[in-house]
Design a protein that fits this description.
The complex is a heterodimer of chains A (about 525) and B (about 180). Chain A is of the alpha+beta class and about 525 residues long. Chain A has helices at about 5-10, 20-30, 30-50, 55-70, 75-105, 125-145, 150-175, 180-200, 205-230, 235-255, 255-260, 280-295, 300-320, 325-355, 360-390, 400-420, and strands at about 435-445, 450-460, 460-470, 475, 480, 490-495, 505-510. In chain A, strands 3-2-1-6-7-4-5 form a 7-stranded mixed beta sheet, with no helix packed on it. In chain A, strand 4 (about 475) and strand 5 form a beta hairpin. The radius of gyration of chain A is 30 Å and the shape is elongated. With about 180 residues, chain B is mostly helical. In chain B, about 70% of the residues lie in helices and about 0% in strands. Chain B is built from 9 helices and no strands. Chain B has helices at about 5-15, 20-40, 45-60, 70-90, 110-130, 130-140, 145-155, 160-175, 175-180. In chain B, helix 2 (about 20-40) runs antiparallel to helix 3 and helix 6 crosses helix 7. Chain B starts with 6 loop residues before the first helix and ends with a helix. Classes of the chains: A alpha+beta (about 525), B mainly alpha (about 180). At the A-B interface, helix 3, helix 4, helix 5, helix 13 and helix 15 of A face helix 1, helix 2, helix 3, helix 5 and helix 8 of B.
Chain lengths: ~525, ~180
């Protein structure tokens, strides 16, 4: 790197943060650039200390008064209900967590870290949570692609089995405060999912399909009761309702009269603390799984899957911010699968079944919402890689670097997939066609690689646009073609575009003086 | 600025209508938004009014915030819109040109004088910076926003945001040349 490049780098970089090795090397050798850096550091300090007057606390208080009397814009429909429940459930969960930890502490003083398991024993909490997320993504994708009651019952029973195993693990291993969430979700799967599906079956099919489900539920009840005997009484108290629910639902499934009389389950949705954590993601997956089992409509299924994708994207962002590269990689793959087998597959089904369905307009919204999540991810990744571009990766960093590269590729594939989903469909009504022409003033033209930078004014604002001027592109000044080396900074031009940023023809506008 | 881990959770709760969660968010970001707006207007009361307006608008529009996006950038974008809207109204006439200076307390008198002098020159230099350069520069310097986030706040491209910060720093370096070159006692 030469002085010019190092100075350009210093001017757009936080001078105290991650200096690339090449810059460091140059700075060691160049006194002038060291001086520049010193001045920039001093400038940063002055800027940091720039005084601002003390704020008037009354203004903030007035804001909160106004907030008190103003209702925020609410997202529509079920999404809004889900969010409202989140607040309620969070409060519930916090209260529960406090109660359990107090009771537990009184009866069982803490001895060792309960989270880390012995080798060969139960998996660690983090592993178990991530494994559960993986399993529920699979369950949900199975439900998103089947309308057969037999298959739906089978998947819902597997979900219940997984939840029961997780509850027993939590009871033995902790953290106990999450037990309530899992027990509630189990009840939701049984009452809303299994009973709901069983009610929709004709009596003949019920007699054929329900006995194996009942048997599994009874076995679950026994396992739960056994586990409850082995754990401290305060914990057992929260585990036992799971056994009771399993027995109650198995009774309902064997009793025709009770089954048809049973109202659909109304459950306060419990939620895990910390958005984007595996536990929150898993809770969302369970709820979406039950919705997917209830609803055979491909558009709504695409919505539910898109919501799963949103949650996966949020978890991915948070994992990426925390530097958990392995999880980022796993979540990236899951996000890709959900988009492919959940969203895209259901939209394809809708188009095939009813190509004139007026709701196809809504399709665009589903895709756009997920596209925004993917865009956020791409930005995050680009930012991460630009921060990591300080130099070639160290041996220890290489794995993370490779994983980030893989994720980048996966996101690109996903982007392509989103475009493929919209293929075969006319553009959304009212959307303007892509811009064909750009007017601006030449800022620079790199003759070697054809990079043309224009300063463009729009709505009173000036911004830079970088275009590619390929060798075959025409450069004209009416009425004739002119050599491209006559395009100099300051000239007004009009660029006709072939693609998004590739120039087909550049017209130089020479004004008569 | 360090990432605030509770932020996504608080935003979700606030989206669900939880005023306490929004109050926590406002507490965290109030001073930052106010400082930025003050840097652009140089007027305490106007900056306060605009900050209040920005938070109220943010509260009303929370439902449109996309989880996973940068809440900071979204909030500052609203603040910027309030500033632009404010310019169209009667309040625009009250903008002062030069900043009010509040000297910092400094134990070493020699250093304090030099620092104060440097800061006064810096304030004047900042005031001479075109506003869109100043807006980008303060977001970068004070708020530690990435260029992508600055672009989102100012409704421009990442390259332009980078360019504005580049130019602003270059300008300030030149303006403060002698002060930055002096050896600190």
């Amino acid at each position: 790197m030469n002085c010019h490049e190092v100075y350009a780098w210093l001017l757009v970089s936080k001078t105290t943060k991650g200096t690339p090795r090449e810059v460091q090397r140059h700075l060691r050798q160049c006194r002038r650039c060291r001086g520049r850096r010193r001045r920039l550091l001093r400038l940063d300090r002055y800027v940091e200390q720039l005084p601002a007057p003390a704020e008037d606390p009354g203004v903030k208080a007035r804001l909160m008064q106004q907030v008190e009397h103003t209702t925020p814009f609410r997202p529509p429909g079920w999404r809004r209900r889900l969010l409202l429940r989140l607040a309620v459930a969070l409060a519930l969960l916090l209260a529960f967590s406090l109660t359990v930890s107090l009771l537990d502490r009184r009866e069982n003083p803490p001895a060792s870290d309960p989270v880390v398991g012995e080798p060969g024993s139960l998996p660690s909490t983090k592993e178990a949570e991530e494994e559960l997320v993986t399993r529920f993504v699979k369950h949900n994708l199975s439900l998103a692609n089947t309308s057969h009651p037999e298959m739906q019952l089978q998947v819902l029973t597997s979900m219940a089995g997984d939840l029961q195993a997780e509850a027993c693990r939590l009871a033995k291993q902790g953290p106990h405060e999450e037990l309530l969430l899992v027990v509630r979700l189990y009840e939701h799967v049984l009452r809303q999912g299994l009973i709901g599906r069983a009610r929709s079956l004709p009596p003949g099919q019920r007699r054929e399909l329900l006995p194996p489900v009942v048997k599994l539920l009874q076995e679950s009840a026994v396992t739960v009761e056994q586990t409850a005997r082995d754990v401290p009484p305060a914990v057992a108290e929260f585990l036992r309702p799971m056994g009771a629910v399993a027995r109650d639902v198995s009774d309902t499934l064997t009793n025709e009269e009770k089954l048809t009389a049973e109202p659909p389950g109304t459950l306060t949705l419990p939620f895990a603390t910390g958005s984007g954590t595996p536990r929150t993601l898993f809770a969302v997956l369970v709820v979406q799984g039950v919705l997917l089992a209830e609803d055979n409509d491909p558009l709504r299924r695409a919505y539910y899957c898109s919501d799963m994708a949103d949650q996966l994207a949020l978890s991915l962002l948070i994992a990426s911010q925390r530097g958990d590269h392995e999880r980022v990689s796993v979540l990236g793959t899951q996000l890709n699968t959900v988009m492919d087998q959940g969203v895209a597959a259901n939209l394809a089904r809708l188009r095939k079944e009813n190509p004139d369905d007026p709701r196809l307009k809504e399709l665009e919204r589903v895709i756009q919402r997920t596209a925004r999540a993917v865009e956020a991810l791409e930005k995050e990744l680009a930012q991460a890689s630009s921060q990591g571009n300080a130099g070639p990766p160290q041996v220890g960093e290489r794995r993370q670097y490779e994983q980030a590269k893989d994720l980048g590729k996966a996101l690109k594939d996903l982007d392509k997939k989103l475009k493929d989903i919209t293929k075969g469909k006319k553009g959304p009504p009212g959307k303007p066609p892509p811009k064909q022409e750009i007017r601006g003033v030449v800022k620079s033209l790199d003759a070697n690689n054809g990079t043309l930078v224009l300063m463009v004014k729009e709505n009173g604002q000036e911004f830079e646009v970088t275009l590619h001027l390929p060798p075959g592109a025409r450069v004209r000044s009416e009425p004739r073609d002119i050599p491209r080396d006559t395009v100099k900074p300051g000239l007004e031009v009009k660029a006709r575009l072939r693609e998004k940023t590739t120039v087909e023809e550049l017209k130089v506008e020479l004004k008569d003086r | 600025m360090e990432r605030w881990e509770e932020e996504p959770q608080l935003v979700l709760l606030a989206q669900a209508g939880d005023r306490q969660a929004f109050a926590t968010l406002a507490e965290h970001y109030w001073r930052r938004v106010f400082r930025w707006l003050y840097g652009l207007t140089h007027h305490t009361h106007l900056a306060e009014d605009l900050t209040q307006e920005a938070f109220l608008k943010a509260w009303r529009a929370l439902g449109s915030f996309q989880p996973g996006a940068s809440f900071r950038a979204w909030l500052f974008h609203i603040a910027r819109n309030c500033l632009i809207d404010g310019r169209r109204g009667p309040r625009s006439a009250t903008v002062q040109v030069l900043p009010q200076t509040v000297p910092a307390r400094e134990p070493d008198p020699g250093k304090a004088v030099l620092e104060r002098e440097g800061q006064a020159v810096l304030q004047e230099a900042c005031a001479r910076l075109p506003e869109h350069f100043r807006a980008a520069f303060f977001l970068w310097a004070h708020e530690d926003l990435s260029f992508a986030e600055i672009a989102q706040v100012l409704g421009t491209t990442e390259a332009t945001a980078r360019w504005r910060v580049f130019k602003a720093r270059l300008f300030l370096l030149k303006e403060l040349g002698s002060y930055l070159g002096k050896k600190m006692p």
